[in-house]
Queue: 2 jobs
Job 1
Amino acid sequence: MLTKCCSLSENDVCRHEIAGVVTEVGSDVKGFKVGDHVGVGTYVNSCRDCENCNSSLENHCPRSVFTFNGIDTDGTVTKGGYSTHIVVHERYGSTILTDCANKIL
Ligand SMILES: [Zn+2]
């Protein structure tokens, strides 16, 4: 049983579906670097500019890309945790502390 991870108690819920290690970052990425442990939640991208996105309701964004079975901007179908690699906008990645990552990766 996981009783304490990322400062969460056993009653808290981790908010990511996939956990991995950053292998590449885009030139505009500020929040992550290669080697960081990261979690990815329900979506990997959205327009990040509509009323829904600006209200933290990206799941209602007409251009959101879901982590699993979504149509990505390049036309490919996302495969979520079945993927060997995943591309996610930094807005939808969550830092996982190293101590926690060692328990779940
Ligand atoms: Zn949007």
Job 2
Amino acid sequence: MKITCDIALDLIGLYLDGEASPDSKRAVEEHLRECESCRKYYRTLRKNTINQTDSNFPSLSSPPDSAYEEIMIRIGKRVRNTGMLFVGGALTFAAICSIASIHFIKGR
Ligand SMILES: [Zn+2]
């Protein structure tokens, strides 16, 4: 099936999304083999589609719940780490104070 560039450009989006019918797929592949400008468009679009899939931004096709949970877990870990640092710092400060006061008492 021969298709025009207009139709090919329309179908390339569907083709990359995997939503094109087998007939449309074949038509797009056939057109891309013969048409340089549509091939360029296809490459650009494919690169963008792959970039979108690779990034952590939640897309409409996959629910953002898992990404959201992961972010919350990461934030939770960081809060816990900071909390531990704070407790550790407070304990160290308390120890220094008690040592200093013992020295102070002994010194008198
Ligand atoms: Zn074309």
